[in-house]
Design a protein that fits this description.
Layout: E1 4-7, H1 13-20, E2 28-32, H2 44-50, E3 59-65, H3 69-75, E4 82-86, H4 90-100, E5 103-109, E6 128-132, E7 155-158, E8 177-180, E9 185-186, E10 189-190, H5 192-208
Parallel strand pairs: 1-2, 1-8, 2-3, 3-4, 4-5, 5-6, 6-7, 7-8
Antiparallel strand pairs: 9-10
Length: 209
């Protein structure tokens, strides 16, 4: 059952303020903190200024790919509620979680069922499971039905080339939270009109539940 959504890869104040003030604002907004290959990457000084806003109750997420201590120390005082971690082992996540006192979204990149075998070993360090494609900065799909029968006791977030006008009913059986980034863009930039349509669609779906 879809409860909420996350808009990821926000990198400018105009888009951020539009989302925050929207009547159907998402539960989460994500910022790319250390993955420089992504066109949505936000350099630290810009990030620091970008986050100086009234969050209006929205949870801010630091998206981190195998972070080192340098970036973790840099962002530790910024207004992040969650760290979304890629390519980290359970013991690494535990150290980060204990040291920085953040909730954790553990990201699994999925291509085949084989990629799902290890998810249960993260149950003690994970607050939300995210199943994403292996595309990282690229918008690539994966077969979302692969996660349908996983026995997960925590919230599940799903990403992977989801589009602003997709039929979100297709995700009701497999996820609690829709995570979208590239699907809200036109020519590589967040598109306010697509964000408007997507947030309205999520709200309509929540009201059906």
């Amino acid at each position: 059952m879809i409860k909420s959504c996350k808009i990821c890869g926000v990198s400018d104040s105009k888009t951020l303020n539009f989302i925050i003030k929207h009547p159907f604002a998402p539960e989460f907004i994500g910022f790319i903190c250390n993955y420089k290959k992504s066109p949505r990457y936000v350099e630290f000084e810009k990030l620091k200024n970008l986050l100086k806003v009234d969050k209006n109750g929205i949870k801010f997420v630091a998206v981190l790919v195998k972070p080192d201590m340098d970036i973790l120390e840099k962002i530790k005082d910024l207004e992040f509620d969650y760290y979304q971690l890629y390519d980290c082992k359970p013991d690494e996540i535990k150290l980060i979680k204990d040291k920085y006192r953040k909730k954790i979204i553990t990201a699994f990149t999925v291509e085949t069922a084989e990629d799902l075998k290890k998810f249960s070993s993260f149950k003690d360090v994970t607050d939300i499971y995210l199943f994403d494609s292996k595309g990282y900065e690229k918008s690539i799909s994966f077969n979302h039905n692969l996660i349908e029968n996983l026995n997960i006791k925590k919230n599940v977030m799903v990403a992977g080339n989801i589009q602003f006008n997709d039929n979100l009913d297709n995700f009701k059986k497999i996820a609690d939270i829709i995570d979208i980034s590239g699907g809200l863009e036109t020519s590589g930039q967040k598109d306010i009109s697509k964000i408007e349509i997507f947030l309205k669609n999520v709200e309509d779906l929540k009201n059906e539940n």
